[in-house]
């Protein structure tokens, strides 16, 4: 029963051809280990053979003093390029670890081969 349901859901979805992930600098996940896990875990699933792209998103902070947004290596101590403030900044992005996009193959043949 479960296998049949799985087959049906695969057909409804079409074949997944590409998954794009966002991996923020602060997410604490190493991109290489995602790729390694992907290769190890996907055979036999509906993700088998599909492409994976991991986009590493930079850490962006908003200055505590002047509200300027800038990229930094650390959320703990980073000097604002505008005013020199080093602490208390807010994290704008860089913590996220999420699926950005999933591409599914249509039933019609793909004639546009651009990439
Ligand atoms: Zn500042």
Describe it for me?
It is a single chain. With 115 residues, the chain is of the alpha+beta class. The chain has one domain (2-104): hypothetical protein PF0899 fold (2-Layer Sandwich). 20% of the residues lie in helices and 31% in strands. The chain contains two helices and six strands; from the N terminus they run αβαβββββ. It has helices at 2-13, 31-41; strands at residues 16-24, 51-57, 59-62, 69-72, 90-93, 97-104. The strands form two sheets. The chain has a three-stranded mixed sheet, with helices on one face. Strands 4-3-5 form a three-stranded antiparallel sheet, with no helix packed on it. Helix 2 (31-41) links the parallel strand 1 (16-24) and strand 2 (51-57). The longest helix is centred in the N-terminal third of the chain and has 12 residues, at 2-13. The model has no long low-confidence stretch (mean pLDDT 86).
Ligand types: zinc ion
Structural class, please?
alpha+beta
Compute the number of strand runs. 6
- Number of domains in the coordinates? 1
CATH level 1 name: Alpha Beta
Q: What is the distance, rounded to the nearest whole angstrom, between the alpha carbons of the first and last residues? A: 39 Å
Number of helices: 2
Q: Which CATH architecture would you pick?
A: 2-Layer Sandwich
How much of the sequence lies in strands comes to 25-35%
Shape: elongated
Task: Give the C-alpha Rg.
Answer: 20 Å
């Amino acid at each position: 029963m479960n296998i049949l349901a799985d087959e049906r859901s695969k057909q409804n979805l079409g074949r997944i051809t590409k998954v794009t992930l966002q991996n923020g600098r602060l997410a604490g996940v190493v991109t290489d280990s995602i790729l390694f896990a992907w290769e190890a875990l996907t055979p036999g699933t509906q993700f088998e053979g599909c492409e994976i792209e991991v986009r590493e998103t930079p850490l962006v902070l908003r200055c505590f003093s002047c509200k300027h947004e800038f990229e930094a290596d650390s959320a703990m101590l980073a000097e604002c390029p505008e005013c020199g403030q080093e602490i208390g900044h807010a994290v704008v992005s860089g913590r996220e670890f999420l699926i950005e996009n999933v591409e599914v193959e249509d039933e019609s043949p793909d004639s546009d081969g651009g990439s």
